[in-house]
Amino acid sequence: MVILVIGIAFVIEKAFFPSLNELLANFTAFLRQFLVLLQDWRFYIVIMPVIGLLFLSLYAFAQKKALQREREERAHSLFWKKEDEENERRKLLLSHTQVKLEKQEVFPEIEEFSDEQEEPEEQEKPRVRPSINVDFRKIFYKRKELNKHEIKYLIKHGYQEYSHKSIVTNKKENYLLKPRHNESLRHMIFVFDIFEFLQGRNIEAAMYTTRMPDVVFKVNGKEFAIEVETGTVIKNMKKFREKLVLLNEKYGKKWYFVVTNRNLIKKYRKFGKVIDPRFIKFNLLKIIKNA
Questions:
Q1: Cα-based angle 103, 106, 112 (whole degrees, multiple of 5)
Q2: Gyration radius (Cα) of the chain, Å
């Protein structure tokens, strides 16, 4: 806040006082002039709206988060309300369509005896609401770690099922993924699988969706980067070259392309080191060993 006030003071000084160059040459004189500026009503005309805007931005951010939580709670409540209504309709339908078997003709004595021996109907047990414990902020779920109610709930709210051979288990796994803007499910699952593999070996790793690489991890104090490529970004060569500049400046030779299709290897090899999708685990272990 102090830096912000001093910066604004520079701007105001430039606008209202002609001796700015002298103040810059003599910082002590500037501080004295700044104290004088604090007594100038024009200073407060500028600074107060800036401070007000800052507080309004913080308030709007807090309101947005509260509204998001409220929407999630409302969606959860609406889901269970519809479930209860569906169960009630199902019970009503069964009660109207159930056909009672006709009793066989028996002697009166036997029929009377059978009626006396009829046991009372067992009362229906109250329905227990199954547990649903999911977080919409999480974009990856393994299907086997969810119960059927959680799977149904996530799919109802936009998650999609996807199968992929994991480098963690060396088996085909089923996932529920939450699609993100302008990103394919194939790209998402490659990023998540690499991240989970590194975490399983207690390696510090992070996933990014900004201009940063898809996965960044550290081994023995050295930082490495993984850029997962499906072949779409390279079609925009300007954007692709900007990414190359960033990778080379920040990571030097410690970054790699992981292509999702082995037919892309030749195309990407001209721009950097490429990892074949069939040998991701082998190459990651090699990088970790040689770090």
A1: 90
A2: 33
Q: Please state, in angstroms and as integers, the Cα–Cα distance from residue 185 to each residue in 109, 126, 226, 265, 283, following that order.
A: 72, 41, 17, 20, 23
The domain made up of 181-290 has a fold known as Trna Endonuclease; Chain: A, domain 1 (3.40.1350)
The residues, any chain, with a CB within 8 Å of residue 290's CB and separated by 6 or more, are: none
Distance separating alpha carbons of residues 89 and 282, to the nearest angstrom: 55
Q: In what order do the strands lie in the sheet containing 172-177?
A: 140-142, 172-177, 160-165
Q: Cβ(254)–Cβ(225) under 8 Å? A: yes
DSSP helix/strand/coil, 39: coil
CB 13 within 8 A of CB 37: yes
For residue 200 the two structure tokens come to 């399983």
Contact of 207 with 281, CB cutoff 8 Å? no
Give me the tens of pLDDT residue by residue for the chain, a chain 291 residues long: 656 656 666 665 555 555 545 545 566 777 777 777 777 777 778 778 888 888 888 888 888 878 877 777 777 667 667 767 776 776 666 665 554 444 444 444 444 444 445 555 556 666 666 788 898 889 889 999 999 999 999 999 999 999 999 999 999 999 999 988 788 999 999 999 999 999 999 999 999 887 889 999 999 999 999 999 999 888 889 989 999 999 999 999 999 999 999 999 999 999 999 999 999 999 999 999 998
Contacts of 214 (CB under 8 A, 6+ apart): 187, 191, 194, 207, 208, 226, 227, 228
Measure the CA–CA gap between 183 and 164, rounded to whole angstroms.
16
User: Which contiguous run of DSSP H or E holds residue 160?
Assistant: strand 160-165
CA distance 146 to 175: 10
- For CATH 3.40.1350, list the domain ranges present in the chain: 181-290
CA–CA separation, 275 and 271 (whole Å): 13
